[in-house]
Amino acid sequence: MSKTSSMKKPPRRSEALKLYVKDLGKPPVKRYVEVQKTRGRLISIGNIDVDIDNLIERTFLCDRHRCIQWTPHEKKADARPIIDNSCCSRYTVPVTDLDRERVEEILPLVKKRLEKNHPLIVSPDEPAYELQEDYSFAMRERESGACQFVLYEKGLTTCAIHKTCLEEGLDPWVYKPLGCSLWPLAILDYEDDDGKERLLLTIYSNTTEALFDNEAEDDSNGESVFACLVDKDPSYDPMYRACRGVIVQTFGDEFYRKLDQQAQKRLRS
To answer: What does R_g of the chain's alpha carbons equal in angstroms?
Structure first.
C-alpha cells in the first residue's frame, strides 16, 4: 500500500465546515479546560476539574485589614473608610433562589445590627436584592459599590449577615450567599465532548478573566486591585487549603480529602 493511500482522507467540505463552526463556537471555559488538560494542569475528581495553577500552586491569605484605608486611624472610634478595595465592595454578589430564601429568613435579626438610616430600615419593604438585566438577582449595593451588608465599625469591616450568625449561634455557611463565601473561588459548568456536564473549580484572576462575563472588558476588578491576590508569599497556605471551609461546604469532605491527597503529591514533586 502506498504512503499516499494509507493517509487519512480529509473530511468532506461540509463536514469540515461543521467541525470549523463547532470549534469556533466552543465556550471559553471549555477552551480553557482543554488547554489546561493538554498542559497537565488539571486535577479531575469525579465530574469536577480543579485548576492546579490557581488552586494548588498559588498561595492565599485573606486579611481584611489590607483591603481598606481608614481615616483618621483605624484604631479610633470615629474611623471611617476612605478607600475600600475589598471583594465586598468590588463585586456584585449574585444570589440564587436558595440564597434569597435564607437571606429573607435571617433578615429580621440582621436588621437589628444595621444603622437607623440604612435603606432596609428606612424602607423595610424594600428587598435586599435587585433584578438584573438578565433577570438574575444580585445583592443591592451602596452608592460606593459596597454590598449593603458591609459594616464599618471602629476600624473593622464585617459582614452583617456573618456577624449576625456568629452572635446568634447560627451557621454562616447556611445564611450567607454562596457567592460571598466562595470568593476568590469560582465554579463554572461546561459540557465535555460526550455532552456530560462537568464543573471547573478555579479563581477570579488575570489568567481566568476571559471566562467571566464582562471581566475581559473591565479591569477594575482585576487581581491587581486585591491585596490578597497580589501578595503570593510562599509562607501562606495554598489556595485550596486557605479556602478549605467553603470547598468542604460546597463539595463535601470526601472531595476535599481526594483533592488534598492529589495536591500534596503535586506540591512534593
So the answer is: 23
Q: How far does Cα 86 stand from its chain's mean position? A: 13
CA-to-CA dists, residue 116 to 13, 81, 111, 112, angstroms: 69, 19, 9, 9
Over residues 87-128, the pLDDT tens digits come to 888 888 889 999 999 999 999 999 998 888 888 888 888 888
Helix, coil or strand: residue 136: coil
The Cα–Cα gap between 215 and 14 comes to 36
pLDDT in tens, 181-225: 999 999 999 999 888 999 999 999 988 988 986 544 455 667 888
d(CA 78, CA 85): 20
Beta bridge partners of 153: 156
- Domain residue ranges in the chain: 27-60+183-268, 92-168
Dihedral (C-alpha) 169, 170, 171, 172: value to the nearest 10 degrees? -100
What does the alpha-carbon distance between residue 138 and residue 140 come to, in Å, rounded to a whole number?
A: 6
What gap in Å lies between CA 86 and CA 145, rounded to an integer? Answer: 11
Instruction: Tell me the C-alpha to C-alpha distance, in Å, between residue 78 and each of 71, 118, 203, 226.
Output: 8, 18, 36, 25
Give the CA count within 13 Å in the CB-facing half-sphere of 262.
17
* Grid cell in block for residue 63: 486579611
Instruction: In whole angstroms, give the CA distance from residue 86 to residue 99.
Output: 21
pLDDT tens across 237-261, in order?
999 999 999 999 999 999 999 999 9
The residue assigned the cell 463556537 is 25
**Distance in angstroms (rounded) separating the CA atoms of residues 132 and 182:** 21
Which residues are registered as beta bridge partners of 131?
Answer: 137
| Angle between helical axes of 160-168 and 97-111 (0-180°, round to 10) | 70
